[in-house]
Structure formats: structure tokens, C-alpha cells
Amino acid sequence: MADVALVPADDGNWTLIFIRELRQPPETVWTALTDPAELDQWSPFQPADDLSKTGDTTLTMIDGDIREDLPATVRRAEPPSLLEYTWGGDLLRWELEPSGTGTRLTLRHTLTTPGMEAMVAAGWHICADVLQHLLDGTPVGVIRGQDAKLHGFDELKVKYQNELQRYAS
After folding, report:
1. Residue 152's CB: how many other CB atoms inside 10 A?
2. Fewer CB atoms inside 10 A, N or C side of the chain?
3. Where would one find coiled-coil regions in this protein (predicted)?
């Protein structure tokens, strides 16, 4: 499991903090977070543009044959340490810190829809697993939408619900 936490956000919403240690240096991870071709191999969306450039773009959610375009704005892009963008109403902030020969990846995902925290954590967990395979040179193919249920999504969601429950009180 990744390290997770749930904290109040400044806007009254909640921020899910998801931390994963990756074996590659920040520069390599940065490319995987920003390059459309690499994002298409591990993330839950296809970006219309390179996310290393600030400005408006579109992130297309994909679930089988269903596609949903969501507006996004890259607000900060400071290679190879900080990437921040909106995704629909949510805000994602990716922080990359050197950790030994690898990277400590911290995602702060501020959610505008309450009650989605465990689902979002489980989704990012699967995405991070796929990302690590991609970075290791052993890609397993993108896992999105309903396909995630074939890769332990429901079990992960329950584990994260239990983990995040302590923040609800």
C-alpha cells in the first residue's frame, strides 16, 4: 500500500495525500507525468497537450469505449519537482523529491466530490503500479475504468476506506 492521508483543504474540501517511492530519478518521473505519450500508458486520462506547459488543456477520461473530456488548466510546471493542474473541479499537485537513487512522489489530490477519497486512492494506487512497470521498462498496459476491477480495485478501495476512516472523525 502507498502512504495515504486525508486533510482539510483551504477551500472546505478534502485533500487526499498519496505517497509512493519510485526507483527512477525525478527527471524520469517528470517526463512520465507530463508527456502525453507516457501518460497514455499509465494514467486514467489522455491529455490533449504536454502538461509541462502552463495553460488550458483537456484531459479525456477513458473507460472502454466511453470517453469524457474534462477541462484542465496547468497552473504550475516546475521541472522536475512540481506539477499542479486542475482536472474538472479537482486540483492535483504532484511533488517529486529525490530519495536515494529514486523519487518520492507525493500527490495531493483535492476533491470536490465528497466520499470519493477511497475510490480515488485505489485508482491512483493501480495507476502508480502501472507507472512503476512503465518506468522499469516492463510495461503492463494502461488500466482504466472498469478494467481496474480486474486488477484488485475493489479490494484496494476497502483497504483505503479502512485506512482513511481515521480521518473522518
Report:
1. 15
2. C
3. none
